[in-house]
Fold each of these.
Amino acid sequence: MTIDPAVLAAPGFGAHFTDHMVLVDFSEQSGWHGRRVVPYGPLPMDPAATALQYGQEIFEGLKVYRHRDGHLRLFRPDMNARRFAASAARLALPAVPAGLFVESIRQLALVDAAWVSDRPGVSLYVRPFVIGTEALLGVRPARHATYGVIASPAGSYFGDTETGISLWLSQNHSRAGAGGTGAAKCGGNYAAALVAQTEAKAHGCQQVLFTDAATRTWVEEAGSMNIFFVFADGTLVTPPLNGAILAGVTRDSVIELARDRGQRVEERPISITEWKEAAATGELTEVFAAGTAAVITPIAALVTDDTVIETRASGSPSTAQQLRDELTGIQHGTIPDRRGWLLDLGPAPR
Ligand SMILES: *Cc1c(COP(=O)(O)O)cnc(C)c1O
């Protein structure tokens, strides 16, 4: 298929799909088998499949970058593979071995390499997923599953975000509770968050912020992004991985980059009250969100029922901007990768 150059130049996020996909079958008897690259298209499925009836589905999200040497590279895919296995365990799905995970992504990236732009800020977002495919209305884990990988050219997630986005504080809806699936990357979490996301949009906000389900006191995350706070003394604070928060690869990378820059990073509970008070005194200088899709995005305001808490970075460039430049520099190959974070998928034709 010929690729529209206008799409590749400004692909937005998740709206266009490449020409192929990878599929692999699982059965209890045969394990993972039948890996194949096929044209992108609909999946025939039994209407009683557990993925459709009971939401037995997990996914991952990572990006392929085209470097100046013509090679395609992945950023820390080992972390995605580990998290995919942990999500599988939580949703009672078979885990995809790390080798199969990386190999299937490599195969798709190379066959659809023409979709990987080397423009700054543009990459190929890869979406691996596993669905329970056994036809079954009785409730138990499926004995048949399908692992798939699709890909979509990715530019800016929010459009223009120089000045930051605003978050809506969800007061009635929770994303995850104790013992729930908050730490798993599964479609069900997103289904549960859609109504809160719609509420956020209705209040003029781009995203929703979730607090803990039990007390609605503590900041958790934004539903597809982890949250960081920057204090006047340079300290970064981010909520701890308490089982309800998704352990972001971007979150982990930001923590390491900030520490290497000599900044203190605290993983500790932070409340809406502390956010409000520290913003008022000027002690809190920045808030930003971190995730593969949105990279690092400043949060300019938290909007609640009765107030708007604004944070505008005073320094220039802001901490968020400096971390974003360093992270994307490593990812796109313009800053040396001293930590062995990149995996070379090999040379690829344009
Ligand atoms: C994927 C995801 C994130 C971000 O994780 P990254 O590995 O940094 O992309 C944060 N929260 C949720 C709920 C997610 O699904």
Note: The chain has a mean pLDDT of 95.
Amino acid sequence: MRWQHGGMTIAEEAVADATTRTAYRTCPLCEACCGLEITLTDERVTRIRGDRDDVFSHGFICPKGSTLKQLHDDPDRLRSPRIKRDGVWHDASWAEAFAEIERRLLPIIEAHGRDAVGVYLGNPGVHSLGSLLYGKPLIKALGTSNVYSASTVDQRPKELACAHLFGGGLTVPVPDVDRTDLLVVLGANPYASNGSLATAPDWPGRIEAMRARGGRLVVVDPRRSRTAEEADVHLAIRPGSDALLLAALVSTLADEGRIDCGAAAPYVRGLEPVVAALAPFTPELVAPAVGVDAAAIRSLALELADAPRAVVYGRIGTTTAAFGTLASWLVDVVNTVTGNLDQPGGAMFPLAAAGASNTRGTPRVGRGVRAARRSSRVRSLPETMGELPVVCLAEEIDTPGDGQIRAMVTMAGNPVVSTPNAGRLDAAFATLEFMVSVDIYVNETTRHADVILPAPSALTKGHYDLAFMQLSLRNVANYSPPVLPLGPDELEEWEILAKLALIVQGMGAAADASVVDDLMIGALVAGAVADEHSPVHGRDPEALLAELEPRRGPERLLDLMLRTGPYGDGFGSIKDDVAPGVPPLTLDLLVDRPHGVDLGPLAPRLPDVLRTPSGLVELDAEPLLADLERLRALAEAPVPPAVLVGRRDLRSNNSWMHNLEVLVKGKPRCTLHVHPSDAERWGLVDGATACVRSRSGQLEAPVEVTDAVRPGVVSLPHGWGHGAAGVEMEVAQRVAGVNSNLVADELLFDPLSGTAVLNGIPVEVGPA
Ligand SMILES: Nc1nc2c(c(=O)[nH]1)N[C@H]1C(S)=C(S)[C@@H](COP(=O)(O)OP(=O)(O)OC[C@H]3O[C@@H](n4cnc5c(=O)[nH]c(N)nc54)[C@H](O)[C@@H]3O)O[C@H]1N2
Ligand SMILES: Nc1nc2c(c(=O)[nH]1)N[C@H]1C(S)=C(S)[C@@H](COP(=O)(O)OP(=O)(O)OC[C@H]3O[C@@H](n4cnc5c(=O)[nH]c(N)nc54)[C@H](O)[C@@H]3O)O[C@H]1N2
Ligand code: SF4
Ligand SMILES: [Mo]
């Protein structure tokens, strides 16, 4: 299926006498960051297709990219604030909505303290400059310990492992797919997801190009995913056992005398103790638990050692597991001991143009991982990176006592669908004294809100993918100005969050958002002039602020980050081109280059990328080595008769794009994949309804019998279950599906990162 090149026409040719213009914009929907070419006729979007001139995506786009138009036009998308009184929604002005929040939220804080307000931050907020940058001052202003996000149902294990190894949660080495000879993918399906923690448009094309030049693809996945179908070797692993498999690779390499860190060797600390600690994990020991032959494990280890350039890449299937942090660490241990860390074709560190902590401060100096500085109230689960694990959100709301959460603020998140024991969280939200959501829909989560503040349409936002450009397979920078102006009654997302920050600080609902904005830019400028490694070290802050005029909001912050970043103009102090044909960066330059600027392929960054206390790659981080004992027990643990894993579809995006007809038409996708032998054993046939039960809940779903899953494994996509009362998404309600997280168990998680087990959940399956 070649949907990717050339894009899709979504409207007929423009009428002859209409005014037509073209705008370019990076797609904000997933991590691939594709360039879009948007045609507008009389200021209405008439067509969206891939931008062939985009320096990174070269015209690639997936079926979701063109739906920014449908999203913009969706009648269910909220366009004005809503207030709920006595269970009934009323449209409100912004002034009324902010006043309502002040009136109802402040007394809760006054009576019960700041921890009484919980916050949940969802995924689209990371793609939105406004929420990414201004969510922080809001959280600070709230001053609560109860901060939760989608990170602990996602990538936190990788961030934690990288913080230990390299000194930064976003210092994540990415697979250099474009130059490798062997790509080993564990628990990722980039043919459906377009890649994650590894930003690159057109993963399928890149994988095909790799194979065309003789490279090999190995996919480790309990399902024969689309990506596995393309693989030279598919290892159908038992869910949850990736850490064992990876440990056995290291054990084999040691046994064969093939440990060689290559060019990274001088910068690696603790190789010997790590190799010694992993030695007992022989292929023979782990094979029964992993469900892959010892011989196949050995041969993969040798293939990794023999390949001139090889890289192991692990994603959701490896992180949302009970050994997520260990598996994430082991991915990079394998890359390191095979000499592929920081080498072309191996696992490399991007050098981002803006915002990366590994481009600020002193190279090779860091203060170490900060985790477990405090714990959750009910279950004493440790925080990581300033957040508590979302597996404990429901109990923090429904368990009475001092410090109980009584009010929630959700921003760009749908935790009722996305997080474990969804049924309990749903019920808990219904008991809150007050809830505010910043969102675009009334969905499973926001229907519990008392006030909804609508974020504006993506087409009215400026865009620079600050987080994901730090994880890019090529160094690029691309800014898109808003395609359309805000509607008369709309507020920018940053202003919404800044206003909330002012309200919870007691500055009043009428306070001006610019106060927060000015504080933020002031602090960033102060940080830059104080950083002795910054090109503006020692300069006059006022003079820099003057040069940033007249921009405000996220764009002003971005301009500063770009100009003080590794390719920046240093506010005039740097003059030479930073890449062929690319002058030093400013936001003005990016505005002039709507297809982005290419800053070149990834280049080795060791040791300067490191921000660890030792200034070395700390392979032997103590909490990881200590966790190996628990892993050892997994090798001998009984295998549950059935476990549930997820899967993604190209036309879904987590829980929130099912209201677009173009993306949901066709046969139902929220089906339970069951292996034929299991179907027989459980008395299920194709099209029947199965009941799936776990400790935390149960659900019913239509069965699809398929040998794409390994026996003992069933698969159901997440992000569905839109049938609940009060949801206002007409299309999504019609194709409702079922919420797979009803059976995800909040008691199952990775103890190091607090990340939920969403893949490999023990379940019982039978006819409904
Ligand atoms: N079982 C299972 N569960 C999973 C996963 C899995 O693989 N299996 N995957 C997990 C992963 S990786 C993730 S990232 C999470 C996602 O978890 P969440 O972030 O909680 O969920 P999303 O479905 O992304 O919901 C996004 C919300 O943001 C709103 N929204 C969309 N655009 C905007 C905007 O521009 N501004 C604002 N303010 N709101 C907006 C949408 O209406 C929706 O309410 O789910 C996790 N849950
Ligand atoms: N179309 C689409 N694209 C998306 C999203 C979406 O919802 N839809 N969501 C976006 C988000 S927020 C994220 S985080 C990324 C995620 O991107 P990916 O990590 O590529 O996510 P998936 O496509 O769910 O692929 C995970 C694979 O892991 C397999 N798996 C399950 N359990 C295990 C296990 O124990 N071990 C191994 N080795 N494999 C296992 C599953 O069968 C599945 O094929 O996708 C992003 N892109
Ligand atoms: S792959 Fe991701 S970034 Fe590219 S068009 Fe699709 S949704 Fe947008
Ligand atoms: Mo995610």
Note: Residues 123, 154 surround molybdenum atom (ligand 4) (CB under 6 Å).
